[in-house]
Design brief:
By secondary structure, the chain is α+β, with helices and mostly antiparallel strands. Helix content is about 35%, strand content about 20%. The protein is built from 15 helices and 20 strands. It has helices at about 5-15, 40-50, 105-120, 160-175, 185-195, 200-210, 240-250, 255-275, 315-330, 340-345, 415-430, 445-455, 470-480, 495-510, 525-535; strands at about 25-35, 60, 70, 80-85, 135-140, 145-150, 230-240, 275-285, 305-310, 355-360, 375-380, 390-395, 400-405, 485, 490-495, 520-525, 535, 540, 550, 560-565. The chain has a six-stranded mixed sheet with strand order 7-13-12-10-8-9. The protein has a five-stranded mixed sheet with strand order 4-5-6-1-11, covered by helices on one side. Strands 15-14-19 form a three-stranded mixed sheet. Strand 17 and strand 18 form a beta hairpin. The protein is elongated and about 100 Å long. Residues about 90-100 and about 535-565 have low confidence and may be disordered.
Length: about 575
């Protein structure tokens, strides 16, 4: 009997919360097998791996006290099923170069294989019955097979999968028996390591990191139903030239690609939320170097943690990224603390609804050198999270791949794809000139910017409420201490903005300014400019639309303008 890791506790909570609908943490990947394959030998190889790694034989239970534990069963049968798709002889399109001798076209078999994989994924795994995985071997041709591996994320993380496949190749090559591999480090050793960590020091570090963050960072609307909806995935990628430039920029500034991605997503989030202090989630490998054999351990070692980024519009992006990497490095020793506990310590400021998953896994096994052995190639599968938006990042030698996974009931797929395109747009600008001030990074492309300008300039559309002035005065009376404007270190509340605007109006009246008078403003870009152009006395300036909060960055350039208002 083992305890649970922090992430296992979180995943088990989600599985218990909705135990009837689809399980979002059911993970599936496909293993394409080319060459001569002995199915019995492959099955025996998987049974060897199941017996070798205790974490694969775990089941999850709750005691009467409510405490969750995982039980490791000694002898567990391997769930194995085989389907020969070439043996299906129902009438199909039999003409054309892709037709098989049995009457199934290549497309027919592909469709059938995808349908069977979807059925496997839709069938929930009983978390109390080990093992939490199923294997389906599909025969597609004489030397073509596909192995559909469906498991629960509670068993292992993404790092574990290539380790497992590497061992599978070795065991199969040796005939399917156990003697070829050295002793495997047990996931139980990692759980024991977790129990020895200084949790109070970790709590102190996370309190300090999130101090002052007082509101959640949310991009999705509230979920009115609470029903679990399976997410949809949108694949995007950075071009080969842009990927090379991004990698070289990171190397030149001592920054990892993961840091570049996190900084870029923080910039997108800041524009989405209109804030200069944002928090999002990120996964960490959770494999401590001091634990022997941890690099080849099978289990769920990753953890999900908050990443906080505070932005200064005048700061060069390279400095922002360097500071982010330094803070993340300082927290490495405290990455074992669970997210639920961190959010309890830090409060609402540690709450987020977007997750960045940077995939940096071991190299998959190479193709065999002998012609009598098959080659195993892992292809794209299905995995998801409970967050409305998840960014899966995979860096290869040629491209940076961005997979945007979103809940379609909260974030439509096209909107999710646009989030991915904005991230790529920001990454290109970072690669081009990392000395660019943060405020000058452009998140929108030209068509988006034109749509915003058209909407802003459409002053003929009716405004909600009686008038801009009425809405502003109502809000200033209701929440006089709420923040209305930020410019650098200067913060102005609604009550103060109201008082300063009225003071300016009285001054102008004393100078003889009357209705429909033109007033020229020549002020630095900042609070004074907003006060002068926001309102002149008792009538709203007609060229400005109502917004509840203005955040300005830079505050260096002069912005002369003329506004016409009514006193």
């Amino acid at each position: 009997m083992w305890p649970l890791s922090p992430l296992q506790e979180g995943l088990l909570f989600h599985a218990d919360f909705d135990d009837r609908g689809p399980d979002v943490y059911a993970v599936q990947f496909l293993l394409d097998v080319t060459g001569p394959l002995d199915p019995d030998r492959l099955r025996a190889s998987w049974k060897t791996l199941l017996d070798r790694h205790a974490a694969l034989r775990a089941s999850f239970h709750r005691r009467k006290s409510g405490e969750a534990v995982q039980l490791i069963t000694r002898n567990v049968p391997l769930p194995w099923r085989e389907v020969d798709l070439t043996d299906l002889t129902e009438p199909q399109h039999t003409t054309g170069q892709n037709a098989t001798s049995q009457g199934m076209t290549e497309q027919d078999m592909t469709d059938r294989a995808e349908k069977l994989a979807a059925q496997e994924r839709a069938q929930r795994l009983d978390l109390t019955v080990p093992p939490l995985l199923r294997l389906l071997l599909l025969r597609l041709g004489t030397e073509r097979h596909r192995l559909v591996v469906t498991s629960h994320h509670l068993l292992m993380d993404g790092w574990s999968m290539p380790v497992l496949l590497n061992e599978l190749s070795q065991v199969y090559e040796a005939g399917g028996g156990p003697p070829v591999l050295k002793r495997a480090a047990s996931y139980g050793e990692y759980l024991a390591w977790l129990g020895r960590q200084d949790k109070e020091a970790a709590r102190t570090a996370w309190r300090a990191e999130l101090a002052g963050a007082d509101e959640p960072t949310l991009v999705a609307p509230a979920d009115p139903s609470g029903a679990l909806v399976l997410p949809e995935e949108t694949p995007l990628r950075l071009s080969e030239d842009d990927t090379r430039a991004l990698t070289e920029t990171g190397r030149a500034h001592g920054l990892t690609v993961n840091t570049l991605v996190q900084g870029a997503w923080a910039l997108v989030l800041a524009r989405l939320t209109g804030r200069t202090d944002v928090v999002f989630g990120a996964t960490v490998a959770g494999r401590p170097a001091e634990l022997p054999g941890v690099e080849s351990m099978i289990g769920l070692l990753i953890n999900t943690l908050p990443v906080r980024v505070r932005l200064d519009g005048a700061q060069p992006v390279a400095e922002l990224l360097s500071g982010l990497q330094e803070r993340q490095s300082a927290l490495i020793a405290h990455q074992h603390l669970g997210l639920a506990e961190i959010q309890k310590l830090a409060g609402p400021g540690a709450v987020f609804d977007t997750l960045v998953v940077y995939e940096n896994y071991p190299t998959p096994p190479a193709r065999p050198t002998t012609p009598d052995l098959p080659a195993f190639t892992a292809s794209a599968g299905h995995q998801a999270t409970n967050y409305p938006v998840t960014l899966g990042i995979l860096a290869t030698d040629r491209h940076l791949h961005v997979h945007v996974t979103s809940r379609p009931d909260l974030i439509p797929q096209e909107q999710a794809a646009e989030l991915g395109r904005r991230l790529i747009r920001v990454l290109r600008q970072i690669a081009t000139d990392p000395t660019t001030p943060t405020a000058r990074i452009d998140v929108l492309d030209t068509p988006e910017r034109e749509r915003v300008v058209r909407t802003w300039n459409d002053t003929h559309r009716p405004l909600p409420g009686t008038s801009v002035l009425h809405d502003f005065e109502h809000w200033a009376a209701r929440s006089p201490d709420a923040v209305a404007m930020r410019c650098g270190e200067e913060v102005v509340s609604y009550g103060e903005l109201e008082a300063r605007a009225n003071g300016l109006a009285r001054c102008l009246v004393g100078l003889g300014v009357g209705p429909e008078s033109c007033v020229g403003l020549c002020l630095p870009r900042g609070v004074g400019m907003v006060v002068g152009s926001w309102r002149c006395g008792r009538r709203a300036v007609r060229s400005f639309r109502w917004i509840r909060s203005i955040r300005l960055t830079g505050c260096r350039s002069w912005w002369p303008t003329v506004v016409r208002g009514s006193l």
